[in-house]
Design a protein that fits this description.
The complex is a heterodimer of chains A (147) and B (407). Chain A is an alpha+beta fold and 147 residues long. Chain A folds into two domains: 3-56; 68-144, 3-Layer(aba) Sandwich (Glutaredoxin). Chain A contains seven helices and four strands. In chain A, β3 (124-126) and β4 (129-131) form a beta hairpin. The longest helix of chain A has 12 residues, at 17-28. The termini of chain B are far apart. In chain B, α14 packs antiparallel against α15. Helices cover 46% and strands 14% of the residues of chain B. Chain B folds into three domains: 20-222, Rossmann fold (3-Layer(aba) Sandwich), CATH 3.40.50; 228-314, Ubiquitin-like (UB roll), CATH 3.10.20; 319-406, Up-down Bundle (de novo design (two linked rop proteins)). Chain B contains 18 helices and eleven strands. Classes of the chains: A alpha+beta (147), B alpha/beta (407). Chains A and B meet through α2, α4 and α5 of A and β7, β11 and α13 of B.
């Protein structure tokens, strides 16, 4: 679906701009400038305000990024369980640093705060899907599913 | 010794969460029927008498909060469920929503009848897409069964902002804005969502209601500590043998949480500290472990019950490093609306990073204490007010660890 159609489908929902941004982002992986401008028009708010919403929430990106978004929890329970080693393993495996995307556009690497799966730390999520108890050894197998 | 007691998680593992028939077979929606046979004021009086206090962290008397919204003159009122569970180390609301979503819907419907609301919202954090699916299916089934009558519930998704757990920030987010807390008063029960009287309660608070209505206020008020009765779900993380969850009466002590339910510290190591209530909670030393977990008991030792997260660190952990990481969390999650929090969290993080990297001075500790005091009284919302607590309490109880990094 084209982004204009996606945004239009939320037009009748009061305050629905956040839902609309989620829906667009699930297709495009980020919120391009024209999406923010279109949403501002549909929800009848200034573009600055729509941009303010897009830039406030950590799950939204206003910059292009890889299709599969890998988020690593850096909150205290994952921190003491060895999140730093998982970060190193991911950076090594993908050949990029935290905050970057792979050149083929397949992966984006981001930090996140707690994702609420603390029964088996450390935790990463890929496109919202949680992977528990990860370590350097299990990373390649997890990434293979998305390659 | 306290035993586990499941009120909120009464159906955990006993029903198929996606089958409303299972919930009804366990007696589900009988409480709502009973509530609707009572007058609104009698129902509110009963909830007030049960002394159920908000499970989201602030601990306000639930029935009393409802009475404000009930008394507010307005054609339109809203019931909002705070499912923006962002407190690190906490996953209790996810457990409730994944395993017994109808209990939440029933609790919300009881509240809606009590205050006279026709529309409800569940604001669920964006990190829980799978939970949002479950909730939508549960709502669809409840609508098909007709159990909610004329009360409609819509799920809204957050998008990764810890501050949206603050009720007015959450309301701003439902309205489609940046999730920045509002100035109070007015409080949501008089002017909340779209300026209308609104009750915002936590998932765990709502999930308690069917049992309270069904079994009566006296039954509930007799469980646990009288000033904060009932049960509380705890989630254990860090250096404990059982990184798990359990629901216990509020007279359970911190020591029981760690040693009885948590199975103690792994590999024969010694306990060092525990942080309860989430990442803004105080770090508690060994000497205070016999404190009951109830709200006011925790306050007396300068700690909080909060979300019920229990984060244990053993003797081998570098507690300054942990506190520095937490300071980084608050710098990231401060929304930036008020200067004391925007600047304060950044400066705490900066000073803590310095100390952690070996560049600190003893005078930094005095600075941190002063900054913490200023923030606790001048920040606009609970995020900034509580943000210094982990740093301040680790300085207080684990001074030697700081000295070791500074000297």
């Amino acid at each position: 679906m084209d982004y204009k159609e996606i945004i239009a489908s939320y037009a009748d929902k009061p305050g629905g701009i956040i839902e609309a941004f989620h829906a667009v982002q699930s297709q495009l992986s980020y919120l391009p400038r024209e999406v923010i401008a279109e949403a501002a028009q549909v929800f009848n708010i200034p573009v600055s305000e729509a941009y303010g919403v897009a830039s406030f929430y950590s799950m939204f990106s206003t910059e292009p990024r890889g299709k599969n978004i890998i988020r690593i929890c850096e909150s205290a329970p994952c921190h003491v369980a060895g999140a730093a080693e998982v970060v190193q393993a991911l950076e090594r495996e993908l050949g990029i640093f935290m905050g970057e995307s792979t050149a083929d556009g397949l992966f984006a690497l981001e930090f996140t705060e707690c994702v609420g799966q603390c029964q088996a730390t450390p935790v990463i999520t890929i496109n919202g899907e949680p992977y528990l108890d990860v370590n350097a050894a299990t990373i390649p197998g997890i990434l293979a599913k998305y390659r | 010794m306290a035993e586990e007691m499941r009120i909120v998680l009464r159906n955990y593992g006993k029903i198929d969460p996606l089958k409303i028939e299972d919930y009804i077979a366990q007696g589900g929606y009988k409480a709502l029927e009973k509530a609707r046979s009572m007058s609104q004021s009698d129902l509110i009086a009963e909830v007030k008498k049960s002394n159920l206090r908000g499970r989201g962290g602030a601990g306000f008397n639930c029935g009393q909060k409802w009475s404000f919204a009930y008394g507010a003159e307005s054609d339109i009122k809203y019931v909002v469920c705070n499912a923006d569970e962002g407190e690190p180390g906490t996953y209790k609301d996810r457990l409730i929503m994944e395993n017994d979503p109808q209990a939440l819907l029933e609790g919300m419907a009881i509240c809606a009848y009590a205050i006279g609301a026709k529309q409800g919202y569940i604001y669920c954090r964006g990190e829980y897409p799978q939970v949002i699916k479950i909730l939508n299916q549960a709502i669809e089934q409840a609508v098909t069964k007709g159990v909610l009558a004329d009360f409609a519930i819509e799920v809204r998704s957050g998008a990764g902002a810890y501050v949206c757990g603050e009720e007015t920030a959450l309301i701003e987010s439902i309205e489609g804005s940046r999730g920045e807390p509002r100035f109070k008063p007015p409080y949501p029960p008089s002017q909340g969502l779209w300026g209308k009287p609104t009750i915002v309660n936590n998932v765990e608070t709502f999930a308690n209601l069917p049992a309270i209505v069904e079994n009566g206020a006296d039954w509930y008020a007799s469980i646990g500590v009288p000033s904060y009765p009932g049960t509380k779900i705890f989630t254990l993380t860090g250096d404990v043998n059982n990184c798990t969850f359990f629901e216990v009466p509020t007279n359970t002590t911190i020591r029981e949480l760690i040693y009885k339910f948590g199975g103690g510290i792994p590999a024969g190591k010694k306990f060092k500290a525990v942080q309860i209530g989430g990442t803004s909670g105080a770090f508690i030393p060994e000497s205070q472990l016999d404190t009951p977990v109830a709200f006011d008991n925790m306050s007396t030792i300068g700690a909080t019950l909060g979300s019920g997260a229990v984060f244990v660190v053993d003797e081998t952990r570098d507690i300054v490093d942990v506190a520095a990481r937490i300071a980084g969390f608050f710098e990231h999650e401060s929304c930036g609306k008020c200067a004391p929090c925007r600047e304060g969290t950044a400066r705490i993080a900066e000073i803590m990073e310095n100390i952690n990297d070996g560049f600190g001075e003893m005078s930094d500790l005095a600075l941190l204490k002063k900054l913490g005091r200023v923030m606790s009284v001048s920040c606009l919302c609970g995020l900034g007010q509580a943000a210094p607590a982990p740093v301040i309490t680790t300085i207080e109880h684990f001074m030697a660890d700081y000295q070791a990094k500074i000297l």
